[in-house]
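Human:
Class, as today's exercise, you are to examine the entry below, and be ready to discuss the fold:
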Amino acid sequence: MRIKLLAVLVTALLAGCATPPPPEPGSAASKVVKMGNLKNIETGPMRVARENGFLTVKVSLNNTSSSNKTLFYRFAWLGNDGFPVADEESWKTVTLYGKQASVLPAIAPVSQATDFRIEVQSQ
């Protein structure tokens, strides 16, 4: 009886320590690289389109806390092979006020960009 109880406890502990599975390739979550803790900031749906030959992106953000948050972000523009096709962007900032939802718009600087990655961090 004790061995079964011990086995159940060990199984429960191991299940609680398991890391979550990685996001599905091509999903919105796979496009976001979190550089540190993003407590109370959620990334939502993303809209991607090609306008006048350039990739355009709009990323939804939501501050779930009642306090203001400063978010730092930059886009990396990638080609068909997954490697960067443009120079590295500088970090940009946006203030998300308490309970605010916002959208980050971006346009690829070169027409060769077919994919992107957004790197984010907060204070």
About this structure: The two ends are 50 Å apart (CA to CA). The chain has a mean pLDDT of 86. Strands lie at 32-34, 41-51, 54-63, 69-78, 92-96, 101-107, 115-122.
